[in-house]
Design goal:
- This protein is α/β, with parallel strands linked by helices.
- It is 38% helix and 16% strand.
- The chain has one domain: Rossmann fold, CATH 3.40.50.
- Helix 4 links the parallel strand 4 and strand 5.
- Helix 1 crosses helix 6, helix 3 packs parallel to helix 4 and helix 5 packs across helix 7.
- The N and C termini lie far apart (37 Å).
Length: 284
Amino acid sequence: MNAIVVTGAHGQLGRRVVALAAGRGDGTEVRAYSSADLDVTDPDAVAAVVSAGATVINCAAYTAVDAAETDEARALAVNADGPRNLARACGRVGGRLIHVSTDYVFDGTATEPYEVDADTAPKSAYGRTKLAGELAVREELPEAVVVRTAWVYDNTGKNFVTTMRRLEGERETISVVNDQIGSPTFAHDLASGLLAIETRPSVVGRTVHYTNAGQASWFELARAVFARIGADPERVRPCSSAEYVAAAPRPAYSVLSSRAWLDAGLPPSRPWSDALTAALAQSR
């Protein structure tokens, strides 16, 4: 029987991967491990859960971008040592690894979508640790697939979209930065993309990008959320990144090219605006 091992299974992406994989009804065994169930920084624990022929989808990550600035050692352990352990375990038993990475490996100064082979130059501790994870995976298991994504949200939990919904009910107006550009990505769609890779054994040794199609600023995304929940989008006011104080620098431009994804024969993503509509409809 085929098996899918999902790490970070209680995160917004991991939950979606587990639900979609379990819902396929094709006999695949889905083994879900939260951070409480499996410490990916423990090589022995990792080796114990990776069985021969299994596909590991690594959604485990230290994602507290600002906290990582003063906790880089812990972020490095989770974001680099963890993927290395998973890749090594897969290599030992003939398993497959699909590893999720981030736009933060780039410096955010581009003016057109980043291709997969663009120069990496992370500006934050989080970005440095995620890049270290990519390099560790490539070193241990060259046939692994690395999937970079950006601006991931879901309709539950703590993320930008749910925060905007909450603030709409708490404040008359809110200010959101309008000088950071990216591609909002619904966790459900990203999970579907990861599982599309799992069903295609020919997709090996690649780095690919997956986001929902199109681009927007955080300000435009916030206004889109307001509009879709029946609130006045004019209540969202633009501001600059200079007015928003954060410990870690944010990429000004995070749009990722889908060229390598499509070249691998993987299904195209839907526009971010359509995905947002679907996410908020599920919430209702």
